[in-house]
Structures are given as structure tokens and as C-alpha cells.
Amino acid sequence: FRAAAGTGGRREKPHFSPRALIGSGEREAPPLLQGAPGDGRARVSPPRASLRLPFCVPVWALTPCCPPAAAPAPAPPPARHLFSDPAEIEALRRDLLAWYDKCKRDLPWRTRAATEPDADRRAYAVWVSEIMLQQTQVATVIDYYNRWMQKWPTLQALAQASLEEVNELWAGLGYYSRGKRLQEAARKVVSELAGQMPRTAEDLQKLLPGVGQYTAGAIASISYGQATGVVDGNVIRVLCRLRCIGADSSSPAVIDWLWDMANALVDRSRPGDFNQALMELGATVCVPKAPLCGECPVKQHCRARLRVEKELAFASQKLFGKATPVPDVEDCAGGCPLCPPAAEPWDSSLGVTNFPRKAAKKQPRVARTATCVLERRGCHGDHEYLIVQRPSSGLLAGLWEFPSLPLAQDLQEEKQKEALADHLQAWMGQPVVAGDLQLIGEVVHIFSHIHQTYVVYSLSLDRDVTLDPASSPSRWVTEEEFHASAVSTAMKKVLGPPRAFPPLPPSSCVPERASVPGSPCSRGDPWGL
Ligand code: SF4
User: Fold this and answer.
1) How far does the centroid of ligand 1 lie from the alpha carbon of residue 286, in Å?
2) How far is the CA of 300 from the centre of ligand 1 (A)?
3) pLDDT tens readout for residues 270-296
4) Are residues 210 and 251 in the same domain?
């Protein structure tokens, strides 16, 4: 049994944990790690004693000394939620790794992790992939990853990049703070750690901003071979099904339990491969809606599948009038904290997808924003658009967008136009007539926590404007430059796909200028802004 964290040698009540019941002979405690904000895949909570599952076994129940007279009888451990047989654990590791060796996808970060001899470069390559993969599909990440590693193959190269460059490459990948934090952490490694990546999961999490328990475990196990588990969404799904865990899988108690289980299961000789195999299984076989149980390499260890099979057998017996009670298919008796809640029992029609379960998701906040596509004719007859930079913190920090203004809900169109005209007027330093704004339509974009509607207006300028250099950085861009800039996917939706414009007559040329010195559009800036 593992003592609670930070007991300092005091005799605390130990807790049941999957590791405790494995009997592997390994005595080291699993890493005691804490989540970091923004580590989207981490799904972590620190191993707080107060959040441990309530079926603890008191010390007196484990030792020959006399128990306190009034101590309550300990609740039995929920054996169906554990891996308690060392032979089964060995078999599961073997089956999973054999399948992974045969079926794993060929991914660029795996190739780098397997072939890069330098530990810092290897850890950096894994780190970049893990940050990009947070909340993002593998297929989407591959191209971004390859371009990133080509541009910044080392920590040192990334540390020298500007945030603008990072945002440009990250554009379209979403959750933009990830790229920013990755670069900040790279700078920290170079400036404060002599360019050497921390060598353990504990230090990675402690020393690097944006690296939480999941990312630290992934880097340490894959790059350094540290025997530490990982828990991401795929692992949660697989483990919950393997051990019929139907309680809210986002609750701290269940997450703690899963971390203990992952740390206990991880193969000691191939921890990185084991962790990747578990995630690969969740991504390709034990998928959320229609898992391929028939092809699953660990199906013989899966209690959710066992339950389904027994129910089918029972139904078949019933059909032929031979139904007998089916053992081991019911939930644990007496309000087990890992079984589905009594109000939402096992649903036979869902099969193994009864697991995992989550508390109802919080509804995203609804927001409306007026945005104005300000257009002019640039030199050579090109269409040009004005984009402005967002603040350096908050949502879409540092990205570029069309001039935009948050709107109150249910604001009438005329009022919207007036508000937007006022906003543009204050920003450009000259009158903007609300009636000149043309309503184009609405574009909906779903951020993780915001249901955002952009009310899109357009305004074509037939005169020059003097942008206020005291306001946000701004610049005129062609359509091609717009798509190559650090703009969000939402703004790309606002402009629409690249179009083939008829060239405008050169006589209508407006001199180029921008309020960002050195920006692509500051060439030939007659005002020197
Ligand atoms: Fe998932 Fe099915 Fe495999 Fe169980 S048998 S781990 S539910 S794919």
C-alpha cells in the first residue's frame, strides 16, 4: 500500500489503489504530479488524499495490531475495477505490445522518437507532437508537425522564433495558446536550463510552462524510458471499459484511480511503447461510438465485453427456456463509487459504450460579434483587406482579424451598424457612415467553450484612411497574404475560400501602408507608419 502524498513519514491511512493490489513487487510510488493549466490532454488532478476513493482500508485492517474499538468495518475493495492478478497484467502488456508492433500507424513523431539519438532533440520532438495533439486529430497534426520541425528542428531554433512566426505556423490548428506556451517553455529551457530538457516526468511538469501531468508522462516515457503511465481521453475510455468504470470519468476520484491504474499497468521495459499502444488502441479500435471489440488485442481482459457476452448468452438461454442466473454481470453492491450511478444503470442497448461516462457537458457560452471586412484597391489592382491584431492575452491572443466588436444579444441590425460604425470611426479617426456598411451574413464558429456568431459586414473604401497608430497594430493584406498570416480559422471562414477576383484597374491604386513596421505590407509605406 502506498502512503498518501506528503505524509512525511507519519502514519497515515493508506488507500486501496490498483498498484497496491497488483503485487508486482515494485515498491516505488507512482509519480506524484500535478496538472498544469492548458494541458488539454492531461485530464489530471493531483493525487490529493481527500479525493481518494472512499473505500480506503484503515491501517488496523492490514496489520496485526489491535484495531480501535469503534472503527467501522472496511468496505470491500471493488475487485471488478482492478487488475489484481499479476499474470493477467503481464498478459495484457504482452498482447497490447505485440499488437502495437504489428499495427501501429506510421507517424512522423514516432519515427523521430525511435531514430533520434540525442535525448534533448528526442524529447523536444515528442513534446511538440504531444502539444499539437492536445484536442486535435492526428490527421490534422501531421502536416503542422512536419512544417514545424522543418522550420524549428531544435529547442534553440524555436527559442529564437518570434511569436508572430509561431502564430503563423499554428494558424488553423486551434487552441493558439499552446504554440505560445511551447515557445515560452523552449526559451526557458535555453535560457535557464542550459538547453537541456528536464529528464524526469516530475521535473518536466515542475519546470516547463504548459506541461501537465499527461504531457510530462508522455515525454518521459517515450523519450527517456521512464516507467510512468499516461492518462488522456483514449486511455480513460480503454481503462474504463476494461474495468467497467461507469462513474463520472471526469471526476477527480475516478481520474486519480485511472492514473494509479495507468502507472501500475505500464510495461517496465517498454513504457513509451506501452503508453502509445494504449492510446493507439483507444484511437483506432476502442473508439467512442462503435468499438471493434472483435479485433481488439485485449478483449480477453475486458470486463465490459465480458458483461455483454454474458448478457447475450443469458438472452440466448432464455430464448430456449433454459435461463439461469448470470453471475458477475451486475454492478458492485452497495453504492460503489466506480460503478454507474444508481439513477443511470447499465443500459444493455449500449453494450460496452456504457463506459466511460461523463457528467453533462457545460453548455458553451453564446456570443455575437460584428466584424467588418474593410476592403480597398491596392497597387496592381489587387483587393486588399485591413486586419488588426488582437491583444497579447486572452482568446486568440496575438492573432490577426478583421476589425471586430462584441455585440449585445438581440441587438437590431440598425443598432449593430451604428455600434460598428462608431467603433470603426474611433479606430480610423474619421467619420464612418453606418448606412455604408453592408450586411453580408452570419458565420458561426464553435470554440471549445464559446458558440460564436460573427455578423459580417463589408465596407469598400474609395478614399484613403489614416489609421490611428495608437490603436491596435494593423496592416493591409492581399487575399494571399491574409491566408498566410496568423489569422484564426474563424476569420478564414468570414472571408471565405480563396476567390478569383477580376483585376481592378491600376488607376485606382491606393498607396500601401501599415501600422506594423517591417510587416509584409509596409513596403513603400509613404507615411513611415
Ligand atoms: Fe474496448 Fe472492446 Fe477492446 Fe474492451 S474489447 S477494450 S470495449 S475494443
Assistant:
1) 5
2) 9
3) 999 999 999 999 999 999 999 999 999
4) yes
